[in-house]
Amino acid sequence: MLSRVAENVYWLARYLERAENTARLVNVNTNLLLDLPLEYRPGWLPLIDITGNRDLFDAREKRSEEREIVHFLIADLENPGSILASLRSARENARTLRDVLPNEVWEHLNELFMEIKEALPAALNKRTRFQFLQHIIRGMQTLTGELEGTMSRSDAFTVLMLGRNLERADMTSRIIDVRSAQRLPADAPELATFDTIQWMNLLKSISGYQMYRLSQRTRVSRSAVLEFVLRDRKFPRACLYCLNEAEYFLRALPRSAGVLGSLEAARAFLEEATLETLDQPGLHEHIDQLQLHIIVVHEGIARTYFPPRAASAIQSQAQMPSDARQKMSAVAEIPARSMQTS
Amino acid sequence: MSIDWTTYCASGLHDELIGPSGGARSAGRALIRHLSELGCEEIGIRQQAADLAIKVMGVTFTVYHQEDGSIDRAWPLDIIPRIISAKEWNKIAAGLIQRVAALNHFIDDVYHAQRIVKDKVFPQQIIASSKNFRPNCVGISPPNGCWAHICGSDLVRDKDGTVYVLEDNLRVPSGVSYMIENRQVVKRVLPELFENTAILSVDDYPAQLHDMLAALSPRREGLPEIVVLTPGIYNSAYFEHSYLARQMGCELVEGRDLAVHEDDCVYMQTIDGWTRVDVIYRRIDDDFLDPESFRADSSLGVPGLMRAWAKGNVALANAPGAGVADDKLVYTYVPDMIRYYLDEDPILPNVPSWRCAEPKELEHVLLHLDSLVVKPVDGSGGYGMLMGPTASQRERSQFAAQLRAAPRDFIAQPVITLSTVPTFIDARIEPRHVDLRPFILSGPKTYVTTGGLTRVALREGSLVVNSSQGGGSKDTWIVDTET
Description:
The structure holds two protein chains of two kinds. By secondary structure, chain A is mainly α. Chain A has one domain (3-337). Chain A has helices at residues 3-34, 45-50, 54-59, 66-74, 83-95, 103-118, 120-124, 126-150, 155-180, 192-205, 209-216, 222-231, 239-251, 257-272, 280-305, 311-318, 322-327, 334-337. By secondary structure, chain B is an alpha+beta fold. Chain B has helices spanning 29-57, 86-110, 115-118, 124-128, 176-189, 191-196, 205-214, 238-248, 286-289, 305-310, 328-331, 334-342, 359-367, 393-405; strands spanning 60-67, 70-74, 77-85, 150-157, 163-169, 226-229, 251-253, 258-260, 266-270, 273-277, 279-282, 315-317, 354-355, 372-376, 386-387, 410-414, 420-425, 428-437, 439-442, 446-448, 453-457, 471-479. The interface between A and B is medium-sized, with 29 and 26 residues.
């Protein structure tokens, strides 16, 4: 497979997954807010941080009210991480891959993009938003199914699965982060019920409530949910599951030893953490670190399989001091992830 | 609403489906009956279904400005097909095969002994002044002496029914993918007709193209690595490049994916490392192919590609330099070439042409500018020409000055009133002018597409069929009426 094609397939998978998970992200926040007592509602601004778009959002001089933020996340084409922009980038990548993808996948993606663009007003209206987001999630799930069901298990498929699983691990961690932004006072037992409802909502947003119940057979609790969402080995949206999948597909590619090393490090980081001792800020820090690990894996993949970037770009990364790199927030990487935008 | 065919035909035109008295021509009888049964309203519904299918299938052509963040435009298809009887088509196909054979002889001769010049059939001056003659191709012998492996010739039918060759596109002719996709769509929306009529299939082209390309491979052992070389997604024919790569199951590459290594072989960059390439179906003009040999500022091509090709380490289709015959002044000599190289009479006539390069003919052209079409010899897409009868006096005198300054750059032809085909326009059926572009593949054997791409001028009275200038397209049926 051509290196350039590998890069485009990889980004196609990531953008598809990102569009779906951003829809899940908006859905979970909508539900969380409705279920909280008024005085504890953190609003919508945390979502901007979680998707790593604070600078862009501020630069656009948007007001931090629901309508503007939801528009920014769903429909703003200037925001490369918005659902519509992700879909557009997925489509632009797919357009260069028409010789690689099953024809039906291209037809469906094309159709979905046009449909969603036309249905945008429904996304901004609170009453119809849920259906709109549900429609996107279903559309993406159908596309995922079409790819699985009709694409030969070629190198292109392997790279596709690699991209999908890395993006999914990353986005699931961001969805958990929504929850860490909500700080109910620990010494208020009357709020305990709310806390449980919140974790349930989070599970539901990644379609994981039922699977959680089957696997954990216990009431919903913070540590059990974190364990499940971060470290379950059987649930396909759990971070550890995704990293294991990524490893499986990476092993099928030539020259993968170096990248496998950084993937192993990411997995070790995830497996070795003591989740129950993490308070909310600690959880947030943990998730940032996980995202940094995923970025290192991504960079390894790009170096090994994609066409080389212009020398200057590589240079500027290499010159960054390592401790700055450690502190660099995961979210700051988002613009780099979006370099494939049309 | 039923369709009254007696009021359909505009006088003085040749219609492909309806005869002068308003009755259907024999090859189109079943279609016309079917359309009459459907009525305009139902035809309108089917046209909408076709438009939707095209949108969903993503059959597009690319424009150079963005709208709604997209550079794609849905491919315009009118669902009423253009029909040619198999009997007539067989004769046309034989004429095309003859023509392309002569053209390949000519190109090979131009880059070798130039016998045709020595025998005074073709003037040396035309080669010397040709923009598409490539001195670095002199003396090179591509496999089987074949240079123009893929040719797209434009055919037109005049009002007296004669089919003429209007031009031969020997550089990077496009449109064949739309021919195939048009058929897919029309099959979906007019299925009844395919059940009852012997319409010859067009789907064979990609397989034929693949076989022709594979036969060019310089390496005899193993499966040849064939690639389609595209300038990228912003090229107007990108859809077609990707379509053909997909249909042939080969890689669609850009110049930056390829490199010529020290062994003067071509390699592509893959996830396994560098892989050798045997055959390149290039959809990039000569000028941009190799910055070492042609335009140094080109970033679309591959440095060293000409070197690899000249050494026979990679095959290029079409061969560099083939464009020397894609020149409308050279075109005027094709009937002579057929007689000279093949010792046969031309089966298909050229449109009568005046060579402005010859002083006497130039004088004639200048005197009759108001009745002639004047075309630049290396133009395409309908740009840069003068339509004498509709031009203003001022435009004509400006053009006359251009002609005097650079006579080599122009030829003139009488206005051909292109034949028409019933076309669905604003809920009615009206005649619109069409041309036809068949594709000819030259390899161990020569293959002609079944029909070709019919392009239609959608504006009333217009003779401009180019999709970049508001033209549409039609499915083309070769119908066997003998069975």
